[in-house]
Amino acid sequence: METPDIEMNLLLQAVYMKYGYDFRNYSKAHLKRRIHQRLQMSGMETISELQNKVLWDKTFFRTFLQDLSINVTEMFRDPEFYLTFRKKVVSDLKTYAHIKVWHAGCSTGEEVYSLAILLKEEGLLGKTRIYATDINKGVLEIARQGIYSKKEMELYARNYSEAGGTGKLSDYYTSKYGSVLFDKSLSKNIVFADHNLVTDSVFAEVNLIFCRNVLIYFDKTLQNKVLHLFNNSLSKRGYLCLGTKESLKFTDLENSFASIDKKLKIYKKLHI
Amino acid sequence: MKAIVVGASYGGMEAIKTLLSALPENFRVPVIVVLHIGNNNVSGFLNYLNKNTPFKVKEAAEKEKIRPKTVYFAPPNYHLQVEADCSLSLSTDAKVNYSRPSIDVLFETAAWTYRNELTGILLTGSNSDGSKGLHTIQKYGGITIVENPETAFAKAMPSSAIELFEPDFVLNVDEIAEKLAGLSGMEASG
Predict the structure, then answer these.
(1) What is the pTM of this model?
(2) Which chain A residues contact residue B82 at CB under 8 A?
(3) Would the CB atoms of A29 and B84 count as touching at under 8 Å?
């Protein structure tokens, strides 16, 4: 084994033992890139040096945690997914008395607000509770505030309309000084909470799980573990929505779900 | 040689077609490609290559094992990475050099895994993605090939690599396949 790889394993072990965040089964290429970026920015030579600072300097660890977490997202990312969700899932959801949604790995919340807008337009938001979770408290705070840069709105408005939006995206926010604030009526039924997919367990029974572009950062072992967690959290005939490049194929849960849309990775838990 | 990574941008489809079509039929080394193509659908192009080259050409699936006689393309809007166990992984991380997929991300992660058993090829393009990654490949002992900027469809990308470091070979696109065959043959005959 090469020395930097030994160092990286030791660093991940150290982070787990000291702070309880378990990155040991994350994609190593992704972690290595982020770690290298941090080394360069801090002018450090080796991962061992970084490990020393991570262990002894809590403020530095918060920055490092930010480095490792996944924080790129956008509103109505993959518009076709939202359009298909409207066509293939919403009518079933309309038959529910109450809907509980778990948005796992919600990052700064852009996709949570996207779902809230969709549900509002379909007349479902009032009877829905959304649990939006992430391991990173920093991004959750941004999500809770619902304030985003106005610069992004042009792309988001285009996504929104391709996603089958029935009004205008600007109906849902107010602009001020280069920022936009999303309407509080959208977040009224959203609970933002800190949850770690790797080390925490089931916290509620839900009818729908959104976890898009999170599993790609995990290795096969961890993917299976998290999918079991989802399976145990979902009610009978509940829905699971993954990122368009993620799949249940070749996982433990392959036969426990029916595919509602193969391309856009919408699954329904089978009642076995 | 265990793998080849290729980066291309503006004018890249034509260059990749030329390169893959000229490789010998029994060429086995896997080829992993990042082609900047915006959010456009590449499936038509991949189908064409599948029919007209001796290789299996496909979009890379996440955690897929890298196999011989196969050409993998990064899916639009995802970075493509090589993992230590020679599988492929995807990421939606921030753009690198204004690009996702970024050539640098593929080249750098491939260099970490394949070290001196990797060949990196940087083709036509009008930005500077890939230079840094190709330099990393050289630092890890891999072979680096840059398309001749004078004959490339767009010269900025190959030029920027040549400005950054001295690549092992600077070749016209129609000479690259022959070089690869030679390099892998040398390897096979020890």
Answers:
(1) 0.93
(2) 29
(3) yes
Contact A102, A133 (CB under 8 A): yes
Contacts of A178 (CB under 8 A, 6+ apart): A149, A150, A151
B135 is catalytic: no
Query: Mind listing the pLDDT tens digit for each residue in A14-54?
Result: 999 999 999 999 999 999 999 999 999 999 999 999 999 99
What ipTM describes this predicted complex? 0.91
Q: Using CA atoms, how far apart are residues B160 and B130, in angstroms rounded to an integer?
A: 9
| Adjacent-strand bridge partners of A175 | A180
Two tokens, residue A39: 């080394």
Every domain of chain B and the residues it spans = 3-188
- As given in the structure block, the two tokens for residue B111 are 């260099």
Q: By C-alpha distance, which of B73, B67, B70, B20 is closest to B42?
A: B73
Q: Of chain A residues 108-167, which have a CB less than 8 A from chain B?
A: none
Distance CA(B41)–CA(A28), nearest Å, equals: 29
In chain A the domains, ranked by start, together with CATH numbers, are 3-68 (1.10.155), 79-269 (3.40.50.150)
For domain B3-188, the CATH class is: alpha beta
